[in-house]
Amino acid sequence: MRTINSFITVLLLVLSGYTSFAQEKQNTKQLDSVVITSSRIDLPFKENSRTITVISAQEIAQNPATNVTELLQQVAGVDMRRRGVNGMQADLYIRGGSFDQTLILIDGIKVEDAQTGHHTMNMALPIEVIERIEIIKGPAARVFGQNAFTGAINIVTKNSTVDVNSAGFQVGSFGQQHVTGTTGIDFNRTSVIAHASVNTSDGYRHNTDFKNQNYFIKGTFNKNNTPINLIGYFTDRKFGANGFYASPSAINQYEETQSSLIGVTSTYKKGNITLKPRLYWKRNQDMYLFVRHIPSIYRNLHITNKVGGEVNASYKSDLGITGFGVDVAKVYLSSNNLGDRDRFMTNAFLEHRFTFANDKLDVTPGIAVNYFSDFKFHAFPGIDIGYQVNDNVKIYANAGYTYRIPTYTDLFYRDPTTLGNEHLEPEEALTEELGIKYTKGNFSGSIAVFNRDSNNLIDYVKEKSDDLWEATNIQDLNTIGLEANASINYTMSGFNQNITLGYTYLDEDLKTSKVNFSRYSINSLQHHATATFRTQFLKNFRQSIAYKFAKRTEGTDNEYHVIDIKATLDLDSFELSIIGNNIFNTDYTETNLVPMPKGNVLLGVKYKF
Question: What CATH code is assigned to 2-608?
Fold first, then answer.
């Protein structure tokens, strides 16, 4: 494997040295013109007074990542704790929060799972159908409600059928085989985009084989008037889970998950008012075996359904933009471990964006009021403030309360060592942030500092070594952090080049609890540095390098460097690619002492029609 990786590295260096071909410059969409739809008040990227990162479709195409999980782990401040290759199982953390404290949205539809945050990334769509990914960091409960404790990620799907038709095949290390097909048809007033893919692997070590199927369809109707978007997504995952949960010694664990989403959205505009109604149904099924071939030893089966609807609105007046809306949902859980549960929840929000001093100063106060049938009412105010110093510099600050209600796993789960607690209270936090953005020409950069005081965090504790671990609201945590990002585009030898850099530092202070045994462990990315270098020196050949440095607060192997590469050769209708992950064979783990695979390679061919 070392020989293969060395050959690939040398090949890339040699090929990137040639500059004898010319290229037509591609038109790229300026980030400032992108309207951030993860905010309830749609604003251009440059006008937002929050820390937001956008990954465009072009960046996705040039990236060595093959799935959303790998994409996100290249963003500073986003901690993807993966188990194995291809993002088969991974947990999402933002700025040191837990996997239960982040929210995923698809086209603005909240797809959290009431059972456990372990299923958050089950809804990560295939990258072939993604237009962009919007990452909002910091408190977002005022905007989205519960689960957006430390941030939210909105996956925006493609609308245009241009350049989506393709069929691809990849083969690589560990018996990986990936087959994908995407097509788009435009019927003038109606368009349809469909995708199917199957990803399989023999596994990179004992009992880590997997089979992942994805099916996606999106139809846009009545495009010339009031458009109606219908999306459907289904994913089926079956994988060996050697050491993924329980303890590293549990080498024969196995899991099967199914996740699906059906959603209908529209946008209605008349005069100064904009309405965005949504209806959706989200389902998740999870089957877990402690011993893969002996289900009778220990088996869990959970089925969660969420049915919801929402209407968001904005109104423009001489006083600014007012955003308001309400969403309601009902959750149903059927589980052999957690029992049969249901929950009604509703969320109403109101915010208004004022502008002063010739529109240089913007102030957006707002509040969200939430009701849960089992946790009653909670109100969470917040405010965003921004000042445009000049055309290039903006200073911003925001503050807000945020919260998370316990998952059904926190409340009711039990096994031979663990006991849930149905009397748990919601976790709460107050977060403040101060930042500055600079944009000029082809360069953009930002620096932000933030503070989060978290209370009532849920920990699993016990008084005696022989007791069961029991979920308890017992921990308080203060998190102070700094984040810096920069991106530069430039031209070399007539070709567009891009460098993106990011760095996050966290200082976490966990208040000492008065218990003898505690499971709560701070293992965040204390230092997290990322760099992506996208280059092109030949007419039909481009390459990219992604680098990540991570230093965690705990563990014997808590510091590591990882480099991934991708090279792509365009031959008219065909596209040949080679992807190398962890090309220098770094030994590291991201969670639960599960070793990540060493250097592995994917060779791919794509036919565009």
Answer: 2.40.170.20
